[in-house]
Batch of 2 targets.
Target 1
Amino acid sequence: MQFKHRAVIDTIPNYKQGKPAPTSANIVNYKISSNENPYPPLPSVVKAISDKCLATFNRYPDMRGTATVERIAQEFQVQPEEVILGCGSTEVITQLVNLVAGEGDEVIYPWRSFEAYPIIVTNAGATSVQIPNLPDGSHDIDGIINAINERTRLIILNNPNNPTSTALSKTDIERVLSATPKDVLVLLDEAYIQFNTCENTVDGIEVFHKFKNVVVARTFSKAYGLAGLRIGYGIADANIIEGMRKTAIPFGVTDIAQKAAIASMNAYDELDDRVQLLIQERERVCELLYKQGWKFAKPYANFYWIAFGERTDEMQEVFRSKGLSVRAFSNEGIRFTVGEKEANDRVIQILSEYNPADFE
Ligand SMILES: *Cc1c(COP(=O)(O)O)cnc(C)c1O
């Protein structure tokens, strides 16, 4: 049916969700396409939500998520007025873009990066200024700085970057901030910060304490394993947070998600053990792939990126036929989530049958 609508919507690509695990017979199939945590929910988190929310979901949640906000504020030594929740950090980023950018305004971000950025920016009516990554997949900091002009309303930095898994140094981030006018905001998207072992990187909250135009977005989806519950948070100056509240989806964060987030923060040690195991697994897998001759940037998130170029679709099909769903970007490369050990071993096994030189 034809209907009147905003023409700009027709320019938005559909978000392509990581494919579910294949259904090949006679093998165990794995999904390593969405950067999810392969560990099942922690029993203590399951218990907290079963005890506390399952009998009350006829009621709306606390819209501000007061208890969760206070817990986050305490955890990071910021004020509760400097914290906002979102239906995943995807919604936090959406709140921010809707707050600062509309018709005629520009949002600068690296590309390739998080698929949601162009969708969010275009929906807001603003213009995306995509700065191609350097050949190793890292942000082109000079390119980002050179793109700043009087129409710039927001600069997004993704540390580590999805899908290339590269990290930003403290110098990179501070260079961008020094070049940004004081009344223009810089978003540090730190969805994977818990996996970031890069030595010279910097924690976004430290940067926020130094530069008031910084907004930090984080999520419980990845390291904390709450992807299906949808909760993330933003940390920023209280005036920015107040503005973001106006653009937030009312009641977008469920009580179950709020309680699960608190229970997860209370189970930090247990969750951190899992994060450390995933980091060790990442290092093990990458070392073996480097030994096979594959060349790719050292990853700092729970995934790694190999540029297969024009053979990307062919390789995706190889992985699919062997029971692995991976995230492929045609003609560019494949992002592999560090998943179950068996899944990671299968990637290594499959790639051992190819010659990396054939992809250069
Ligand atoms: C996964 C991800 C997010 C947030 O995901 P939510 O599930 O919405 O919290 C944000 N940024 C990047 C780069 C991501 O990969």
Note: The mean pLDDT is 97.
Target 2
Amino acid sequence: MNKIKKTFDDYVMGTYTRTGPVFVKGKGSYLFDEDKNKYLDFFPGWGVGILGHAHAAVAKDIATQAKQLIHVPNNLYSPNQALCAKELIKASFKKGKVFFCNSGAESVEAAVKLAKAYGSDKKKTEIIAMKKSFHGRTIGALSCTVQDQKQGPFQPLLKGIKSAEFGDFESFKAQVTAKTAAVILEPIQGEGGVNIATKEYLQKMREFCTNNDILLIFDEVQTGMARTGKMFAYQYFGVEPDLFTLSKGLGAGFPIGCIVVSEKFETVLKPGMHASTFGGSPLATAAVLAVLKAIKEEKVLANVKKKEKVMAKRLNALKKECSCIKDVRGVGLMWAVELNDNAKPVYDELMTRKMITNVSHNTVMRVMPALNINDKDFDKGLSMFEAAIRNFDQK
Ligand SMILES: *Cc1c(COP(=O)(O)O)cnc(C)c1O
């Protein structure tokens, strides 16, 4: 057995199902294993790798900052966190504030705590979450992740979390009481298998929440940072939440998360009510500043829109051709090909052919390449994917 894999077996807790070789290096849309084999990564970091691997400018800025100042506690000042918050507000609400943490689940925890704090004066203690959602594995975030399989043995979870069908406004309304403080949803459910909300649904939610003093929270951990062809998915739908979470693509691989809060709710969390030791460190926010700069300079939004058209055309053509495909759906560079059967054989074949993809809920293949992927790698990846699906279809 491979030495590193054996060391994993011996010393790392078995909370993950790992496959493939041992990767030691990345560059752009490729990963390299111990034997210098090259794998085309069409699912970099589960949506994290928006700029591919080892992006030169981001790596350089991280290295420079690491030599200068890695961490200062949040009771002291340093420049990057402030500059980073300013950029995020400029790109979103224009007026509002940001709280920084270190991961997606933590950003959801911050959103849940803000909702609870907002509701506490008004005796509003309930939060509505969506079925098939994914918000993370910590207890608060898991309480909002309405999937039996994930909540399983961890019951009882947080009190006061109710659930509604995603995309069904009446189902949401049926859960609302005088105690509803907030509703949390992903505008496009990621782990749930790329389930896309309609604009009408989100508009209705917005109107109802405004009229009933309910916080509308979007979890944009996966959809944020240009994934949809807009900087944030709410801009794609044209429906503004009261606050939203970011994490996966925010540091393009460097761990960081945040909530971006609109002006009206920016003072709900007061001094001492929430904190994070590492949150928004000089090093992490240097990474974010470099990512934001790269998105602009490399015209990443334009690339996503251009590639979205090709993806839509080719995957829809593939659906027409292959009866094994149940559905094709997506926005920007966030796509799903849902099969009628278990998709694991397709995943395995692609891994053998040295391409990395993803399967969620057994039948849904997620296609989410880096947002700055070049034409050549994009075409190559799509061709390999099409070939694997055709093969599977003939079996
Ligand atoms: C991945 C994800 C999370 C959890 O992020 P972690 O960094 O793993 O805690 C939360 N919400 C959404 C929408 C996600 O896709």
Note: The chain has a mean pLDDT of 97.
